Amino acid sequence: MTPTNGRPPAGEAAGGGQAGAGGGTAGGRQPDADSRGEGRPRNGSEAGPGPARRDTVAAVVRQWRAVHPGLDTGPMEVIGRINRCAALLQQAEDAPLRRAGLSRPEFDLLGALRRTGHELTPGELARETFSSGAAVTKRLKHLTGRGLVERRGDTRDRRVAHLRLTDAGRDLVDGILPEQLSYETAVLAVLAPEDQGDLATLLAGLLSGLEGRLGPSGA
User: Fold this and answer.
1) Which of 49, 75, 102, 160 supports an S-S bond with 97, CB 3.0-4.6 Å?
2) Whether the predicted model's global pTM rises above the 0.70 cut
3) Tens digit of pLDDT for each residue in 145-170?
4) Residue pair 104/194 in contact by the 8 Å Cβ criterion
């Protein structure tokens, strides 16, 4: 995937700019053949004839290759970058949530009630948000206390509660979501539109395979 406008990948900006420790690329110098590990098959950070990648995961991979030259770092190069991107994106995306006094799991719960468009039981909310029942109960206590969610008892089974957003809860979700989407659009602008589509397709295939093997909750 090729960044547009000549801008560096997001991982480099967030990771402190210079090439990773031990990468040997600072000051425009290129790594020698041994540090690049030429001649070894590779699946990731320095594959192909192009310049070596200089994100933080590439630095970690180079260090592991120096310690274990025969190590297949392909999985590390994929999963490490997914994890690093997720951490950076969530850190920034949570800013509007903190201003609203919400945690990410609490917003996910509110979002589930908003996007489904109907009442949900605590059990259904747990499945929608990939959370435990105890965690959902704790979050609902906070959200109902703030007047963002309201409960309705089941007429046939008093043990069952039905939950829905209040007007205040709906307004809060609708106010935060555009800000998050605007941020995500700006972040993804480092990739050309066609690359964004390719990335979405690849991630969808990975997620589908993982959910098929591990289940939606990952348990």
Assistant:
1) 102
2) no
3) 999 999 988 778 778 889 999 999 99
4) no
155 Cα distance to chain centroid: 40
Q: Where are the beta strands (DSSP E) in 55-190?
A: 149-153, 161-165
Reading the block at residue 106, the tokens are 């609490």
Quote the CA–CA distance of 38 and 32 in Å, as a whole number: 9
Whose CA is closest to 37, among 78, 9, 71? 71
pLDDT per residue as tens digits for the range 1-60: 444 444 444 444 334 333 333 333 333 344 444 444 444 444 444 444 444 568 899 999
Q: Establish how many alpha carbons lie within 13 A of residue 149's alpha carbon, considering only the half-sphere containing its beta carbon.
A: 30
Reported as type and span, the H/E element at residue 112 is helix 104-116
Distance (Å, rounded) from C-alpha 153 to C-alpha 132?
A: 21
- Phi and psi, residue 163, nearest 5°: -120, 145
Judge whether 68 and 100 are in contact, CB under 8 Å.
no
Alpha carbon distance 17, 77 (integer Å): 19
3-state secondary structure (DSSP) of residue 45: coil
3-state secondary structure of 177: helix
Cα–Cα dist 130/105, whole Å = 10
Q: Which two tokens stand for residue 112?
A: 């589930």
Query: Which residue's entry shows tokens 């690093």?
Result: 84
Q: Counting Cβ atoms within 10 Å, is residue 24 exposed (0-12), middle (13-18) or buried (19+)?
A: middle
